[in-house]
Amino acid sequence: MELAEQSGGTLTEQELSPIREKWNVFRKNRSAVFSLWFLIFLFVLSIAAILLTQYSAPFDPATVRLSEKFLPPMTPFTSDLVKPEDAPPFDIYLLGTDELGRDVFSRMLEGTPVSLTIGFVAVGISVSVGILLGGLAGFYGRIRLGLITVDTLIMRFVDIMLCFPTFFLILTVVALLPPSIYNIMIVIGLTSWMGTARLVRAEFLSLREQDYVMAARSQAIPEMRIIFQHIVPNAIAPVLVSATIGVASAILTESALSFLGFGVQPPDATWGNILSDGKGYIFDAPWLTFMPGFTILFVVLAFNLCGEGLREAYNPKLRKQR
Amino acid sequence: MTAFLLRNISQRLILLVFISIIAHSVVHLAPGDPSLVDPSNPRMKPEDIARIRAAFHLDDPLYAQYAYWMRDLFTGQLKSFKDNQPVLGKIWDRFLNSLPLFLVTTLITWCIAFPFGVQAALKRGSLLDKGGTLLSYTLISFPGFFLAYICIILVVKVFDVPVIGISTFGLEDAGPWFQTMDRIWHLTIPALIFASGSIAVLSRYVRSQMLEVIHMDYIRTARAKGLSEEVVIYKHGLRNALLPFITMFGLLIPSLIGGSVIIETIFSWPGLGRLGFEAILNRDFPVILTLNFITAILTLIGTFVSDILYAVADPRIKLQ
Hints:
The complex is a heterodimer of chains A (322) and B (320).
Chain A: H1 2-7, H2 18-28, H3 30-55, E1 75-76, E2 92-93, H4 104-139, E3 144-145, E4 148-149, H5 150-163, H6 166-176, H7 181-190, H8 194-207, H9 211-218, H10 223-260, H11 271-278, H12 287-314, H13 316-321
Antiparallel strand pairs in A: 1-2, 3-4
Helix pairs in contact in A: 2-12, 3-4, 3-12, 4-5, 4-7, 4-8, 4-10, 8-10, 9-10, 10-11, 10-12, 11-12
Chain B: H1 2-29, H2 46-55, H3 62-75, H4 87-122, H5 127-141, H6 144-159, H7 176-213, H8 217-224, H9 229-241, H10 243-266, H11 272-281, H12 285-313
Helix pairs in contact in B: 1-12, 4-5, 4-7, 5-7, 6-7, 7-9, 8-9, 10-11, 10-12, 11-12
């Protein structure tokens, strides 16, 4: 407390709270801020999409209108053959229709929460496994289990996992298991935690020698409490930054799996399988390929740019360089 | 030195054993086995399925199956479940097809990424740097299969060039010059698309390495000695910035083989990635496992070589 008062007096940059300071750096990166707004918009949209596609009849992505096949985007709804209650939202096919006359806009809406959920849950799994194993290796690394130490055991396991061709491994497991969205999340999560584990181990190794950890120990604070209350919050920033980029690559992996036919199964829509269904009609109905393709591109790009902005804000060395 | 090599090699051999055990258990413990590929086939009677399972040792305990796999692999007797061809021969044929694709991809990646990354770092904040940054983020975020489709349409419509497969069917009697050009055309487009993602990642990495190096004291010293700017950048700067890339050699191999699945499937390229994909569809366990095993061996050799090269290139590191 005394120290804080001593350094106080004039309002300098040092007095800004750490979060505030980082936000100031982040704000200067215009593409990152724009991406952040885009992602916030996407979250709101996906919550709206869950409600709309389930409870509102015009937004039902499964409505089949066989007389309305392959209509290009922005076609107004004028058909007499389709029942009026099956009309698309706002009486217009915003993104056209597919080979069964389903409204592509509604299908893209339905896919939004699915793709985002897969990205976040997969990264959640990989971050949890990475923090657990990396933390064990970093904090209890010196304990011997028989012939080898905990650290050797865990880091050799990381080496083993790095030797597998990841996409091939994911494909093998997903193809052998019954197709389901949960299997995809779990498999993507369990094959991408190695980077996080290495990062967390390095952070733990340096943090556990810090004075405040020593101080906490001297007060006989239980070890679990030291780890989760004192060390993890200090080690988590770089992990969260790399997790943002992890979400992007998880969404890409899911779309690639859906493209090969092992992803989310029809009639459920994700961006990947709308693209994969539409690729057969690429010359007659290019919007079926291009709409989901560019959506995936922009969303993944937003996650990547946002992650880069965060990395810059949390890494003073990078900040100086720019 | 010898002790280091011996310990390193033995460590890697132990890793290899564990890798093979993990791969074997993942593949065999997952539900669905080869006899279930075609369950609706009316000609498959329960006796047939039982006979197939017995022939493939699928009813034996897991450790026995592992032992059979290892024995057959090392005596070269391992046969594919699907067509009873020797697995090693199949993989070798496909490897020869994949090799030009991998080599050209790596060559394109390095030839574009390094000069570009260095230039972006030297002209930091310029239009080239900013445009390059945006372009590389776009390339990283592009779903590979989508990029492939756009390129195929563009190339076929605009340049009227063949892209699918390894060569044009029916050109076997054409002159050698014509055949070579045909091969090169077929190779270029998949290699470019395959390389696009890694060009983006690598050039970003080169840029940040180079930025770190050019602020070092020894660069200032070199300038103070009055050396020309070229010598400072390319001899003193670049050589030090390149050091970390030696270690990336080995870990490139899994991503090459894993990443080739999609590209080779789209372009009907009869290479390793497609072999793996077909084997997965057919639940051809020996092929899947052996492909995985060979990838792991190549990766371990790659990381081993890059460890040694790193020590050779950087005198600060001592092998112990």
